[in-house]
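worker-03 picked up job from queue 'complexes'. Input manifest follows; three sequence lines, order preserved.
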Amino acid sequence: MKKRTMFFRMITASLIRRRSRMFIALLAIAVGATILSGLTTIYYDVPRQMGEQFRNYGANMIFMASALNEEGLTSDILEQGLTQIPDSKIVGCAPYRYETVTINNQPVIVAGTDLQGVSKTSPYWFVDGEWPSSNGQILIGKQIAETLSCGIGDTLLMTYSEEAIENPEQPDEVPDRGLNADAVNIEFTITGILDTGGNEESYIFMSLEDISELTGEGPYDVCELSVSASSEELTGYVDNITSRDLGITPRLVKRVTQSETTVLTKLQSLVFLVTIVVLMLMMICVATTMMAVVTERRKEIGLRKALGASDRSIVVEFMGEGMMLGAVGGLIGSFMGFAFAQAVSVNVFNSTITLRPILVPITIVASVIVTGIACLIPVRRTTEVNPALVLKGE
Amino acid sequence: MFLRMVKGALTRQKGKMVMIAFTILLGASLATAMLNIMFDVGDKVNQELKAYGANIIVKPKDNSVLEDLYEVDGEDEIQSSYLQENEIGKIKTIFWTYSIVDFAPFLETTADVNGTAVTVTGSWFNHHLSLPSGEELDAGIVGLRSWWDIEDGQWLDEKVNPDGIMVGTTLAQTLGIRAGDRITLTTDNASKNLLVVGIYNSGADDDDQMITNLDIVQELANTGDLISSIEVSALTSPDDELAQKAARDPMSLSVSEYEVWYCTAYVSSICYQIQEVIPDAVASPVRQVADSEGAIMEKTQLLMILITILSLLGSALGISNLVTASVMERSNEIGLLKAIGAKDGAVSSLVLTEILITAVIGGIAGYFVGYGFAQIIGKSVFDSSIEMKPIVIPIVSVLIILVTLAGSIPAIRMLLKMKPAEVLHGR
Amino acid sequence: MSLLELKDVSKIYGPLKALDKVSLTVEEGEWVAIMGPSGSGKSTMMNIISCLDTPTEGQVLLDGVDIAKENSKRLTEIRRDKIGLIFQQFHLVNYLTALENVMVAQYYHSMPDEAEAMEALEMVGLKDRAKHLPAQLSGGEQQRVCIARALTNHPEIMLADEPTGNLDEANENIVLDLFRQLHKAGTTLIVVTHDPEVADVAGRTIILEHGKIKKEVINSKEK
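worker-03 finished. Artifact:
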């Protein structure tokens, strides 16, 4: 029989036949490994998961027509711009067209937009009533609703004519020729009142089809984008789009991007430090448990020495045993840790995470190393003891 | 004799007891640190979220929508109503005064610079306020516009540059202005020669505007001590059902609900309290900031709670593991005690007392070590210390005692089942 | 040349002289019993001969090599190669089977050999209990496993420390019979005991007291 076979025979016998003690040690290692893999997964996942929460702050990038672009921000140009950003990163996209119309001869700004896109880019919009679901329905800002003293269910007659209103903000505007001279009158139903605490409260929002019907076809003024990406990635997209000269000037909404970076960095470093502290303590816990388990076996170590085992072979045997435990514990822990991270993700962020396969070997190696070291110290100390004293039954 | 035996075990079996105490110390410190961070993380993240700027805006009551529209239409600004500058300080007299982190008044006007009409905003930068309560503070947009990049020059300091102005980056390029230049602003009412202190990049519309001290704009617009709006940054609690109900109509609440709502730092109750002290004003939450803050804080807190639970479980297992192992190790001693006639109860209480004394020592030391950990994390992540909540002490104590008992009882029961003869013969 | 020779060996623990200038010679194939009351230095002498301890003074020649001067690593090697140990408390590894316990000694000595280990067990009459764990064996059986473990490497000297101290009469006889067989086969046996019956079966009994040899008895009547 090979020496190595006997080595493994002894180790497995020790692990299997001393079940209860080994179970204690295994439990400690598995818990340590769970925490390692769980927290590491969370640590890596925090920017993504929290990043999605930060999308609550709304658009972090806007597209505008560049100065040299005479057509304005048409849907074709917008499409091209959007292809520069990976689809999976775009949380929401809402193009806006602003026009001035009159209601009872009072000038009012109406914004035509993709209302579904808006609910993504501006999740903070608080709508009293319903979002418009079909054409002919509008969302009205709280302030302008007060000014016009109208409420949900009321109808508004809007009038648009090219001459009636001078529009200094959009001088390039080229509405459909056919509507040039005649004023267009369309009646809209209010389905909801918009409360944001910001400027939006003074506009009226309608679908893009409605605004085209009312004021004719035209390019967008601006497109708001909510992109789930780090600030470096965002800057990358902006530079890329600018350099391609698509007729789009992309800009980052600094207030959102900068603040997000600040807060996310803090949060991530919080999780990082917490992970480090927890890991340190768990390592020591594993080490003390292993020490207790090894110290318990002083007699056996003494016996092995008396039978002629060299210090080195004893250390190797115990380390082998410890590392085997570490490997099994690490394997169990890496999956339990994933389960934990998954539970956190589902409970906190309502989304699932994918297993990072690389974490499994890392967790196993880490637990093998920790348990190995944890065994090494007490085994070393025990081998220094005179076997005669140990065997006499101290 | 009982005490003597306990004392003997504690002092003579020093190595083992130190190891148990050490593990308990680690567990207790982890629990302390995590619980404290968990309780404080809401406040800390709330502070960090102030980077997003004001979450409440205060406007005059009958300030109409027309202001925005006329501006767009390029006509002269007609603002029908204003707030008084001297009312701003009242914001710091509300019930939730300590929640108010920063605020700044705003007044806009249009002025002529070298033949170009530009929008000039007047505000506070680092305005020093001495409140009737004796509190002193600096308020202004330096804190409320933390995302601004100063591309050239520096932030305006009210004390150093009473005649300073800051220019948006787009406007500065158009007009060819750099920090250190002097520009002249002219309106129908006055003309001012101002020093450009800094060029800012805000990434938004205000990049083609200028901002200067409030009194300069008041002079240019000839409005006296009036202002058009106040932005307030307040630490708030995430909204819940009560807050939503109150937001719709505070009057719909019952008396006790009203009390709870009023005494909670909801954004709606703070708005309500601001309106109480400034009667002509409407304070409304800036939903983009207020709602998102609530969501993020809630998630962060939940995340920390789960991490805390995991680490508490981890330390509980670690402690009970070691306690189990060390009790089992003493099978010889326990066998001997039983052989010389000790009753099960006596043996158990002896072992338990020893371990509990060790646990108490380890737990107390652990609390202070945990305090240290919490402070290290607080300082390195948030640059501020973590407040130690007294509630943590009972939680940690109960936890440690329960865990120690849970760890030792099964082991003791196992030992009691053994026959002394077997134990003594080391089988 | 004698197999083992102790020359003026002393072992001093602080003020206590556990062994005081003891000289002793053991020839190959001899069966020597060491007797004496507790604290007479029996165990110390045993530890020194078994290379578990070194004397403070004096020479211990084993096969002509002075083991008093060797370092602990060399001592371990000498012990492994030349000495078989039998303990009062048996000291079996409790999670290994009888067979595996014997194989542990082979493992450290040279190569584990299951067949050879089985032979040793057969010799002590435990072939059918090879797959049992120590907890499943009686005290006498455990001691026999211990003896099998000691003899499997064919040591030059077999050292037994109170081998019958934990055994009943019947098992004591089994063990003594085994010793007789070993003696017949030519194994050198040194047995530490305080049981005169055990000492009597040896060829020579050395009686220790206060760290000195008090008297030496030659037991002529071989049983």
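worker-03 released lock.
The interface with chain A takes residues 43, 47, 50, 52-53, 73, 76-77, 79-81, 85, 87, 89, 91, 93-97, 100, 103-105, 107-109, 111-114, 133, 149 of chain C (CB under 8 Å).
The helical segments of chain C are 42-49, 72-82, 98-109, 114-123, 139-151, 169-184, 196-201.
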